[in-house]
Write a structure and sequence with these properties.
The protein has 13 helices and twelve strands. The protein is an alpha/beta fold. Strands 1, 2, 3, 4, 5, 6 and 12 form a seven-stranded mixed beta sheet that branches. A hairpin with a 2-residue loop joins strand 7 and strand 8.
Length: 395
């Protein structure tokens, strides 16, 4: 038997696995690395976050990604090269993380890499009637495995698409296995570039679990701050807190086909971007920067709240928030006012730091690929329980 295959077999049979989950989001802040001890699988999964860090990207690397990110036309040879480049670079950051945290490589069984999304095109978005849903994450898993010497599982979203889904949100699988609690209706709200939520019913019935994107999280706010102020985001909502909501602009932004689509659904910065904002502002009297940012913050909050109310109602849910939007006081204040029956907590009260959540979730997905059995989420998801990810061996 191939030695790496034999090693993989023994890892899958072990009582616990040590997995590094990786996440690089559309905000391009940096690479999240979560070193986890994962015991069991399925509903018996237990996760302990041992170490976590976000290694910030240099502006030069961000600009490399921006050349292809959500672009209708790209330099195809450059995209091909970047697929390898991102994989190798992420591998180098993993080795840096191991050194910084004094973790020996033989204490890592598997790397779980999300990759870097550069294009997300569900069927409702691309308008090619004979084409399926599609999504593309770059950062080749073979390059990670060879450079680190560690078995790597990557490219998780393709199996979801192949099975009939839109490739997102994938948080539902890890949310259900880690955060579900009998006796408590929970909403796991993630506000990254795009906002999404998972509803976890108090009865624990997987077929009643619901997940959907709601629209923009931080993507439009962050893009606006980058373009006009060369800042990555509106820290502590300093700018948006100085402005007033432009009601006409808010109405125009919400007048978008995405919000009339049936649930569940997905979207991305390919749709919600500065071009859309300019289009909506053009017929209006020019709002100030502060007013635009205040409007975008409320736009995020309202579309999240309206999605929750339309799909699962106005019940006394426990909402656990994560992602950059959870640190935006204007977004959170408005959300709480729109969902007065809900209690809000930062995800960290569950034992998993909110900033680490998505990296941890991909570690859990890798664990399911190795040791789990498909969980039946019923027809409501459109996709049955599936094991995702491609396996890359170091040699």
């Amino acid at each position: 038997m191939n030695q790496q295959i034999e090693k993989l077999y023994h890892i899958s049979k072990a009582k616990e696995r040590y997995i590094i989950g990786l996440m690089s989001g559309t905000s391009l802040d940096g690479l999240d690395l979560a070193y986890c001890r994962v015991k069991g699988s399925g509903l018996n999964t237990e996760v302990e976050l041992l170490e976590f860090d976000t290694i910030a990207y240099q502006e030069s690397f961000k600009n490399e990604i921006r050349q292809v990110f959500a672009k209708q036309v790209v330099d195809f040879p450059y995209l091909t090269l970047l697929h390898a480049r991102v994989g190798t670079f992420h591998a180098e950051l993993i080795l840096q993380f191991l050194a910084d945290k004094n973790i020996q490589k033989d204490r890592v069984d598997v790397i779980a890499s999300h990759g870097q999304t550069v294009m997300h095109v569900p069927k409702h978005q691309h308008h090619y009637p004979d084409m399926p849903n599609a999504t593309l994450q770059i950062g080749d898993g073979d390059h990670i495995a060879v450079t680190t010497g560690i078995i790597t599982i990557s490219d998780f979203r393709q199996k979801h698409v192949a099975a009939g889904g839109e490739g997102a949100p994938l948080a539902v699988y890890g949310d259900y296995l880690i955060f579900g609690k009998i006796g408590e209706d929970r909403i796991m709200l993630n506000m990254g570039g795009i906002a999404n939520f998972t509803y976890l019913p108090a009865n624990g019935d997987a077929s009643q679990v619901f997940v959907t994107d709601t629209g923009p999280g931080n993507t439009m706010m962050d893009a606006y701050m980058k373009h006009h102020f060369d800042l990555p985001y509106d820290q502590n909502a300093q700018l948006s807190s100085q402005g007033n909501v432009d009601v006409s602009l808010l109405k125009a932004l919400k007048d978008h086909y995405f919000f009339s689509l049936p649930f569940p659904k997905t979207t991305g910065p390919e749709v919600f971007n500065l071009d859309l904002l300019r289009q909506k502002i053009e017929p209006l009297s020019k709002p100030s920067h502060a007013d635009i940012m205040a409007t975008l913050a409320v736009f995020t909050a309202e579309t999240i709240a309206e999605s929750i109310l339309r799909t699962i109602g106005n019940q006394p849910f426990s909402v656990f928030s994560s992602g950059g939007g959870a640190h935006n006081p204007k977004v959170m204040h408005h959300l709480k006012s729109l969902l007065p029956n809900c209690t809000f907590d930062d995800l960290s009260v569950t034992g998993i730091h909110g900033d680490a959540k998505e990296a941890v979730l991909f570690a859990v997905l890798a664990n399911e690929t190795l040791a789990g059995n498909p969980v039946n989420f019923g027809i409501r998801q459109g996709v049955p329980g599936i094991c995702m990810g491609k396996i890359s061996l170091p040699a």
